[in-house]
Amino acid sequence: MNCKTVSEKFISYSNGELSSLENEIVKTHLENCGSCYALFVELETTLNLIEKRKSLDPNPFLYTRIKQNLDAIERRADRPMFVPVYKKILQKVLLSFLLVAGVFFGIKLGNICMSNQVVIFSKSQTTEFYFNDFQQEKLEVLLLSE
Questions:
Q1: Contacts of residue 16, Cβ cutoff 8 Å, sequence gap at least 6
Q2: What is the DSSP letter of 136?
Q3: CB 36, CB 30: distance < 8 Å
Q4: Nearest Cα to Cα of residue 40 among 67, 13, 16, 62
Q5: Could you state, in order of their start, the residue ranges of all structural domains in the chain?
Q6: What single DSSP character describes residue 125?
Q7: pLDDT tens by residue, 6-28
Q8: Do residues 44 and 21 lie in contact, with contact meaning Cβ atoms separated by under 8 Å?
Q9: Can you tell me the distance from the alpha carbon of 36 to that of 29, in angstroms, rounded to the nearest whole number?
Q10: pLDDT digit string (tens) for 58-93?
Q11: Are 14 and 47 in contact (CB under 8 A)?
């Protein structure tokens, strides 16, 4: 039997689904052909890994996580789509309005204070003189006094 025909029967041979005659033919071919034997060993290793993976236990929290995600999607679907955009736009407009109003009232308040200062300075025309008595006293008297 040639290698291609035998390699097509590897899975059936591994599972024990071949007749006794075909089973014996594949067994003798594997004993005599090194490349087919290496291929069969690799196939057996792969099938054993698959069998190990079949017996994995499911994650106990998988259902609750899926349920939470579905509930979150449902809550998002219940909200209107325009509300978040409306809030973002309203927030920017309100902030801009407050900024402009603050600058406007700041200028008005500054003008009011400046006009009051001009009136105060225009009424008061007295000159004040400050007396510097440090030049007349000696330094020792200043340092020794309590």
A1: 23
A2: T
A3: yes
A4: 13
A5: 3-62, 94-125
A6: -
A7: 778 877 887 788 888 888 888 88
A8: no
A9: 8
A10: 778 888 999 999 999 888 777 766 666 677 788 889
A11: yes
Q: Of 56, 30, 57, 33, which Cα lies nearest the Cα of 44?
A: 30
* Cut 0.85: pTM above it: no
Q: Read off the tokens for 8.
A: 């097509």
Q: What angle do CA 92, 95, 99 make, to 5 degrees?
A: 140
| φ and ψ of 110, to 5 deg | -65, -40
CA–CA dist 113, 84 (Å, integer): 43
Q: Which amino acid is at 28?
A: T
- Rounded Cα distance between 22 and 6, Å, is 9
Predicted local confidence at residue 84, as pLDDT: 67
**What string of H, E and C letters represents the secondary structure of 69-105?**
HHHHHHHHHHCCCHHHHHHHHHHHHHHHHHHHHHHHH
pLDDT higher than threshold 80 for residue 52: no
The H helix count followed by the E strand count for the chain is 7, 0
DSSP 41-77: HHHHHHHHHHHHHHTPPPPTTHHHHHHHHHHHHHHHH
